[in-house]
Design a protein that fits this description.
Blueprint lengths: L7 H5 L4 H4 L7 H21 L5 H22 L4 H24 L1 H4 L1 H25 L14
Length: 148
């Protein structure tokens, strides 16, 4: 079964104007997170068909949806400290989703997994840049080399 996923540019054309006209849309991490959740839908549907991966499907669905939701909520906070806290939640969800995707490689296949992990890693890199800008401390990611 070959699943067609819209390229980001095509997908962006399908997003309602009410979302794109909101100032949160200017945040690249938010746009990518919304895209990740949307393209992850078919992955979750496929995983939910096998009782062995139903639990993973549920976890993946929650973590993917949580990334953009936490970014939107954090963006709406007035203090930078509150913003950073929600961006950290989004970072945790992005890492969680990436972890769940790796665990599904036997079902979804290596091409899909590489694409999804790459997208989530891009979101993680953006968040690792955004969070310290809102905090006075620097985040250290032991063992990981991320460039923005």
């Amino acid at each position: 079964m070959v699943r067609q996923v819209l390229a980001y540019e095509e997908w962006e054309q399908t997003v309602p104007e009410e979302i794109k006209s909101d100032s949160v849309w200017r945040m690249q991490a938010y746009r990518l997170a919304l895209y990740a959740a949307d393209i992850g839908w078919e992955d979750v549907v496929l995983l939910a068909r096998d009782r062995r991966t139903i639990g993973i499907a549920e976890q993946l669905f929650r973590s993917l949806g949580s990334i953009s939701a936490n970014l939107a909520e954090g963006y709406s906070r007035s203090s930078q400290r509150d913003q950073a806290r929600f961006y950290e939640y989004a970072l945790g969800s992005a890492r969680e989703a990436r972890d769940w995707y790796f665990k599904t490689r036997h079902v979804l296949g290596s091409k899909v997994i590489c694409e999804r992990i790459s997208l989530l890693t891009k979101i993680i890199r953006l968040l690792l840049t955004m969070i310290p800008q809102r905090r006075s401390v620097t985040l250290h990611d032991e063992g990981g080399e991320y460039g923005a």
